[in-house]
Amino acid sequence: MYVRNFAERTVIMVVGDLDFDTCPQVSEVTDTVDVRDRILCLDLAGVAFMDASGLGLLQTLSREAVTHGGHLELSGLQAQPQHVLDLTGTRAQFHMTSPRPPGPRDPAAVLPVQHAAP
């Protein structure tokens, strides 16, 4: 998992499953991120599987962000996690964006990636 901080947003790149076993590790990282008046973007392009625990975590993060004047974005959602949102009727709860590769003027292209958790 990697964290990148920008002026108005924090991007957390999650890799691997988002399930009962891994959600506590993701929560350890997200609990340290200040979401007050910011966008929390979860880059889920590296997540091929999500279960109900993952969905619950996303809902909790969304509520937390809104409570503190920010919001949650989901980026790069793969087919199976998207299917979970569709099956549960929760897709409309989330703002989804497509991942974009960093360009030469994009701060992501020049900022070092910080390793946030093992």
The percentage of residues in β strands lies in 15-25%
- In helices, the fraction of residues equals 25-40%
Most strands sheet: 6 strands, mixed
- Count of strand segments: 6
**Distance, first to last CA:** 7 Å
Strand order of the largest sheet: 5-4-3-2-1-6
The Cα radius of gyration reads 14 Å
The secondary-structure class comes to: alpha/beta
Question: What is the H/E string?
Answer: EEHEHEHEHE
- Overall pLDDT: 85
> Which stretches of 5+ consecutive residues score pLDDT under 50?
103-118
Shape: globular
Count the helices. How many? 4
Quick overview of this protein structure:
The chain has helices at residues 23-30, 52-67, 79-88, 107-110, and strands spanning 2-5, 9-15, 39-46, 71-75, 95-97, 114-115. The protein has 118 residues and is of the alpha/beta class.
Write a concise keyword list for the protein shown above:
six-stranded mixed beta sheet; 6 strands; globular; 118 residues; alpha/beta; disordered C terminus
Description:
This protein is α/β, with parallel strands linked by helices and 118 residues long. The chain is built from four helices and six strands. The chain has helices at 23-30, 52-67, 79-88, 107-110, and strands spanning 2-5, 9-15, 39-46, 71-75, 95-97, 114-115. Helix 2 (52-67) links the parallel strand 3 (39-46) and strand 4 (71-75).
